[in-house]
Amino acid sequence: MSAAPEEYPYRQVNPEFALKYALQHIEGGRAQIVEGVIQHVVPTWGHERAITSIRRQLDPRLIELDLEPGAGNLDLPGSSNWYIPDLAVVPSHVVDAGGVLVPDQTLLVVEVTSDSNGDTDRVVKRRRYAEYGAPLYLLVDRQERACTLFSTPGPLGYTLVDGPHPFGTSLRLPEPFGLELATDRF
Predict the structure, then answer these.
(1) % pLDDT > 90, the chain
(2) Residues 163, 186: contact at Cβ < 8 Å?
(3) Spans of all domains in the chain
(4) Which CATH architecture has domain 42-181?
């Protein structure tokens, strides 16, 4: 006689957790979930140049403030979203604690648009990062050739918008960064 279906341990697995766990263990690549759709993350050289430019400008402040830059996973618990931002800046003690990070643990999240998913960065991720409390969201829009900084997050979105600023003009990053970001290399 076979065991009753309710005795199988897989019936008690949280589907959100299982999907996000599987996504973290995909061989040979990185993937994210955006509104329930799995997307492979393959940065282009244009993405990389913009992110490198931002990191180089931030590095002195990051060292001074004991902050970590990276493109690690961000979980949006209770949703079907698991993001890999182009860049996130977090306090070192948060990274030292280990585990998965959530947007409200970041100080800055940066997304660089591409032809294939620009609207995701402009609309979906902007809304979700605000909803999950990321204090600063920098959108580097390569199609529009402009940068916009979103701040003061809330459940309905960001309430402060600085931009769009055309590439080549500087953009002020507020504290704790307190610096002018040059955008001519984006």
Answers:
(1) 60
(2) no
(3) 42-181
(4) Alpha-Beta Complex (3.90)
